From TrEMBL:
Domain of life, per lineage: Bacteria
SUPFAM superfamilies from the UniProt entry: Cupredoxins (SSF49503)
Name used for this protein in its record: Copper oxidase
Stretches assigned to the Plastocyanin-like domain: 32-141, 178-281
Any single Pfam family the record assigns to this protein: Cu-oxidase_2
The organism of origin for this protein: Clostridium cibarium
Length: 297
């Protein structure tokens, strides 16, 4: 199974061979650093929302309950679903979900194993930038060779009331979803040094699943290793076309699955290579969009 550090996996029940999930869109106070929280919108008390994990051929029913003060929807980003289930009500027959109401999205998983995302597609400039997104992973039932499998979702935030370059005081901060002047950066809803390290062991085959859905692009760089680019937007890359890299640009709306062999023990950074994305409010780093790979002794 896939581990999303700092983010839960969404539980489900099975009835009549259908997997039933429930997502609650609601205001969330997300702690991004100890004592520092953002007032955003998320799912089931979390930003990003909980990770959904399914298999090819599964039939799913995902009930989305709206506890927000305005209409919302969910778009299943990169998934091949019927038009009415795609979650873009201003264009498609898919409905808006009004406050206090719910909608059941139901469809069969027809994509191959790979990494996708879900996010709001109503008032996108506001709702996505307040945090309405999460990971959607299609697992391979026959996979045997991967020892560690991690999902990392990158986000950027505009916190009101922060003077650039000043230490962040404890408290809860409102977000400005319409700013292009971002001052905080997170992986799975946490800023370094509050990100949870990814534990690996020597000789592990490790997969990192990378995704972004908001405004910025993020060149993600690994130290001490080279990774093989395995999948793009959930689609497998032919063996002959795969390349080794140590930095990959995760553009908004993209997912990438990369593989590497754990053969260089130590504690290794994995981070966005845009300099101010590795800071907390432009203060001395390291901070922001950075986490670590830690070999077990």
């Amino acid at each position: 199974m896939v581990i999303t550090p700092d983010i839960p996996t969404l539980k489900y029940t099975t009835r009549n061979c259908i997997k039933f999930f429930e997502l609650i869109a609601e205001p969330v106070n997300q702690e991004i650093l100890p004592g520092v929280s953002i007032r955003g919108w998320g799912y089931n008390g979390s930003i990003p929302g909980p990770t959904i994990q399914v298999y090819p051929g599964d039939y799913v029913c995902i009930r989305v309950i709206n506890h927000l003060p305005e209409d919302t929807s969910i778009h299943w980003h990169g998934l091949n679903v019927p038009n009415v289930m795609d979650g873009v009500p201003d264009v498609e027959p898919s409905p808006r979900i009004e406050p206090g109401h719910y909608f059941d999205y139901h469809f069969r998983i027809t994509n191959p194993p790979g990494t996708h995302m879900y996010h709001s597609h109503v008032n996108v400039a506001k709702q996505d930038m307040l945090g309405l997104l999460g990971g959607f992973v299609i697992l391979d039932p026959h996979e045997k060779d991967i020892n560690k499998d991690y999902l990392l979702l990158m986000q950027e935030w505009g916190l009101d009331g922060l003077e650039k370059g000043k230490k962040i005081e404890h408290g809860q901060y409102n977000l400005n979803p319409f700013t292009m002047d971002f001052n905080m950066f997170t992986i799975n809803g946490k800023s370094f040094p509050y990100t949870t390290p990814m534990s690996i062991e020597y000789d592990d085959m490790v997969r990192l699943r990378l995704g972004a859905i908001q405004t910025n692009h993020h060149p993600m760089h690994i130290h001490g290793h080279q990774f093989l680019v395995e999948k793009a937007d959930g689609n497998p890359i032919n063996d002959m076309n795969r390349v080794f890299k140590n930095t990959i640009l995760v553009a908004t709306g993209e997912t990438w699955d990369v593989l590497f062999k754990a053969d260089n023990p130590g504690i290794w950074p994995f981070h966005c290579h845009i300099s101010h994305h590795m800071s907390n409010n432009f203060t001395d780093g390291p901070g922001g969009m950075l986490t670590t790979l830690v070999y077990k002794p």
